[in-house]
Specification:
7 helices; 196 residues; globular; 40% helix; binds zinc ion
Length: 196
């Protein structure tokens, strides 16, 4: 099945558009595209994280967070992008591919990245609460595992983090309203979704 045939899978953009954006580096151009996907997630009320799988400069698969839409706790942007890249290429082994994601992957996604044999990971914002590539754990570069991933962190980190900050700031008044109506103590910590 081609990823375009899957109703939850996003269509692949015009490759020339993705690359001809005048960025100073190919990594920034791809991260710019991942940011567009994050914005699309935000419009759906999803935590704004976007991801791309690229091979030889061509986008193979792209995804954004769909946890609310699919009611699936594992529907993180990069996990979906890996799945759809495998379908597009007809193999689970993505060892000549690069994964771009706007936020440092969590433990689940870092595990999926190792399993996919992705050659290189490029991410934007750091996730000090759940990041498993540099922040809490270094799963993708752990020498005890049978695959290690080259990591480039911090590409367009400011913009990648800003969209998340805006998203949670916009949601906060609604959450506080709900809490005060029930006259309960603040449950912000319990309610706050993981950013990825
Ligand atoms: Zn994740």
């Amino acid at each position: 099945m081609r990823p375009q045939d899957d109703e939850t899978c996003l269509p692949i953009p015009d490759q020339a558009d993705a690359l001809a954006s005048g960025e100073s580096s190919p990594d920034e151009a791809m991260m710019r595209r991942a940011l567009e996907l994050a914005r699309a997630a935000k419009d759906l009320g999803e935590v704004p994280v976007g991801a791309l799988v690229v091979r030889a400069g061509q986008i193979i698969a792209q995804a954004h967070n769909l946890r609310e839409t699919l009611r699936d706790p594992t529907a993180h942007a990069e996990r979906l992008a890996l799945t759809w890249a495998g379908r597009a290429l007809g193999t689970w082994r993505l060892d000549d591919c690069v994964l771009y994601v706007t936020l440092e992957p969590c433990a689940m996604c870092a595990g999926a990245i190792v399993l996919s044999r992705i050659r290189r990971l490029v991410y934007g914002a750091t996730d000090p609460k759940a990041g498993a590539c540099r922040s809490l754990y270094r799963l993708v570069s752990d020498p005890r595992l049978n695959h290690r991933v080259e990591v480039t962190a911090g590409v367009l980190a400011g913009e990648c983090g800003e969209i998340l900050t805006e998203f949670f700031q916009e949601r906060r008044p609604f959450r506080k309203l709900g809490v005060s109506r029930k006259a309960q103590p603040s449950t912000d910590k319990l309610d706050a979704p993981s950013p990825s």
